[in-house]
Each structure stands twice: as C-alpha cells, then as structure tokens.
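User: Hi! I'm working on a homework problem where we have to compare a predicted structure to a textbook description. Could you give me the structure for the chain below?
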Amino acid sequence: MAEQLPRPFTSTPFVPFAGELDQFLNRMMRSWPFGWLDTVGASQFPALRAFEPAPKIEVKENGNHYTVCVEVPGLDQSDIKVRVDGDMLTIAGEKKIERSDEKTHYSERSYGSFTRSFHLPTDADKEGISAQYGKGVLTLEIPKTSNGHAGTKEIEIRPS
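Assistant: Happy to help. Predicted structure tokens:
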C-alpha cells in the first residue's frame, strides 16, 4: 500500500504555523496502525479540521482483534452507516435538526453529517467485522487474520 505523503503548506498571517503543525501531526500519525485519510476534500489547512464537528474515536487492540468505539450521541442506529471498501473503513452519519414551533434563543448543540475513514491494518479480517450500537456509542469489532480480503462490504449495525 502506497503511503500518501502530506503536501507542504504555506503559513499566512492568520494561521502562522499551519504547515509545521500539519507536518508534525502527519509524521506522528503515519506510524499508527489505523491511518487517517483526508475525507473532507482539498483544504488549505487540514489541521484546522480538528475544530469541525466529528465523532470522537477510540481504537484498542488485543491479541485477537481491534475494537473501534465511536461516540455518536443523539443518533438513531438508522442514521449511521459503516462500510468497508478494500482496506478502507468508513463511518458516516447525520444528526438531523429537530424542528419545532418554539423560538430558540441559544443552542450549543451541533447538527449535520460526518464521515470518518481509516486505513485498516493489513492483519484485519474485513469479512469478520461486526458492529453494535447502544447508549450513543457505536462499537466495531475487527478480528485479526493472517490474510485480508479486498472488496466492498456494508456492515450491519445491531442494537446492544
């Protein structure tokens, strides 16, 4: 698998350390088994995407499998899609705005869609991935295997 190298970025008066921060984060994350993929599209400052609404992810590993936990409170199971395409795991969803006749004066709630994509490790069994959703947390179990399979597969999410 060819590694995508980060493009060099130029600093501006508004973001003086954008290039250095992106290069540092990319060097640090390159060694992690789950690689980060640019799913948002071309942006001048990828490091600033940390401020965009996206679910928090936790990846754990033991001898037999990987566990990916995704915090998605306020979403129904039907609002979340999990897909494997080759060695790419994609988690997507949308939190829809709740409409009412009341006038909202102040809100810190966030709405909208999100997509998170990760390169699966070479020892991940793409055919054996399972997903469960309960209490606002999506949990993916990714078994380890000695040989992976390429292809596209949609993962069924079961209630906990």
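For your comparison, note the following. The longest strand covers residues 88-95. DSSP finds one helix and ten strands in the chain. Good luck with the assignment!
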